[in-house]
Amino acid sequence: MTTDFNILDMWKDLYNQSSKLYDEKITESFPSQGIGQILDMNLQFKKLMDETTEKYLELGNMPSRKDLANLSSQIVNVDAKVDSLEELLEDKLETLDNQVSFKSELTELKTEMKNLDKKLNQILSILKTKE
């Protein structure tokens, strides 16, 4: 299923046809219509070349410009998500550090309360003995 497809011959044919059309339209009284048709032909040729290139890249298993643009936007999205996850993790770690310091302060407070309770018990026992 091989077909001889020569881009250069196709371009030469297009050039010759567009030259003839241009020459014909210039001699008419409304050259703008001829120029419009030439532009249409050029746009059709560009569309054909774009489709051919896209198909060639697809068959060659190579990324097209569109594929690379999609991949690029996905990478940007992933990067943004990673950044937001980093911020969230930093906030959680900061909160965890605050919790650890709070727990240590609470433990110290409990120890001091126990010491105060012992001293109060000693004072109460001394007061009871003096009565």
Keywords:
single chain; 2 domains; 0% strand; coiled coil; Polyhydroxyalkanoic acid synthase subunit PhaR
Order of helices and strands: HHH
- Count of distinct structural domains: 2
Q: What structural class do the secondary elements suggest?
A: mainly alpha
Q: What is the number of E strands?
A: 0
Supply the number of helical segments: 3
Integer average pLDDT: 83
The portion of residues assigned to helices is over 70%
The proportion of residues in beta strands is under 5%
Coiled coil: 68-126
Keywords: Coiled coil
Protein name: Polyhydroxyalkanoic acid synthase subunit PhaR
The gist of it:
It comes from Neobacillus cucumis. By secondary structure, the protein is mainly alpha-helical. 89% of the residues lie in helices and 0% in strands.
Task: Describe, in plain words, how this protein is organized in 3D.
The chain is mainly alpha-helical and 131 residues long. It has two domains: 62 residues; 69 residues. Helices cover 89% and strands 0% of the residues. The chain has three helices and no strands. The longest helix has 66 residues. The chain is rod-shaped and about 135 Å long.
